[in-house]
Amino acid sequence: MASNDAKSTAEAFLSKFSRGQTFVRKQLLDANQLRLFSLTLDRPHLWSSSGTSGGSTLEDEEPLSGTPIPSYYHLVYFTPAQLPGRLGLDGTDTSFNPDAPFTRRMWAGGSCHWVGANPDASAKALLRVGEMATETTKVLSCEPKVIGKTGEDMLVVRVEKEFRNAKDELCVVDRRNWVFRTALDPTKPATVIPKPAELPASELEQADKGKIVQEYSRDEATLFRFSALTFNAHRIHYDKPWARDVEGHRNVVVHGPLNLMAMLDHWRDAKAATSQDGIFYPEKIEYRATSPVYAGEAYRVTMDEGAVHQKVADVNVVSNDGTTCMRGAISNWS
Q1: E strand or H helix at 232, and its extent?
Q2: Domain holding 197: CATH number?
Q3: Taking burial as the number of CB atoms within 10 A of a residue's CB, which of 20, 40, 282, 294 is the most buried?
Q4: Consecutive sets of 10 residues in the chain, 334 residues long: mean pLDDT of each?
Q5: Which PANTHER family does its entry note (predicted)?
């Protein structure tokens, strides 16, 4: 059972947002920002269909005005807007932080629904390059919980973001779950958990049977560019001494949303391989982060063969040591 401190902090947090207020921002969906983002993800085309970019790669030119923005690439827009002095000690955006000591934020999971991409609609409501879009944010809940393994208190904050296009049509509903744990003392060195041994190649091959697999090993340059483009100053992603000595990670941490996007791109690539039409959106994804992924360590994004044709496809991020790091369920429209 959560402590009285955790419960009172959750109540105080909710009291700040209990009037149902929303936070609205407008932004131009800039072509160059999206271009750099896709290149950071090592994807020279936004879509598999060359017709969406005139045959050129993003290394050659920006995406054309009106090009649909791929699923969850909206993360590169509406980034945090805070002066340096407003950031947390760990570099995180504090716009929706509970009070101390619950200020150590982690992206734990959530869901995203592409409501405007319904293929049965007479016209799709999509976020497109070059348009003015609107983001509306509201707090849904703040719940005190206890971490089972350690007995430590934490708060789970759920936030909903709606994204509308220039016609004020609802395109995307993005619900994010953030975990807030008690802040760490930078003067007290953390215990670093050693890296488990990777599974033998024969076991990895056996685990891959019947699956579509994409392997990654993210380097620090990719994490730096991802942090810069999403304006995410969380130090665990680029400051190795902080990640290791203060937070107990063995290296800088791969962003949770980067793995989320890898799952969605994996599904999208499998979908495109079976059709002449190169633009695909799922109906929704539900996902949960379960273990960190570290720079320089190999991991796989896996999905059963044929799952892309089912109503729900299970897509997982699995470290080569056998640890499941993120679970996702992607729903097809039909």
Answers
A1: none
A2: 3.10.129.10
A3: 282
A4: 83 82 95 98 84 72 96 97 93 91 94 96 94 96 88 94 98 97 91 92 94 97 98 97 96 98 96 81 97 97 95 97 97 92
A5: HYDROXYACYL-THIOESTER DEHYDRATASE TYPE 2, MITOCHONDRIAL, N-TERMINAL OF MAOC-LIKE DEHYDRATASE DOMAIN-CONTAINING PROTEIN
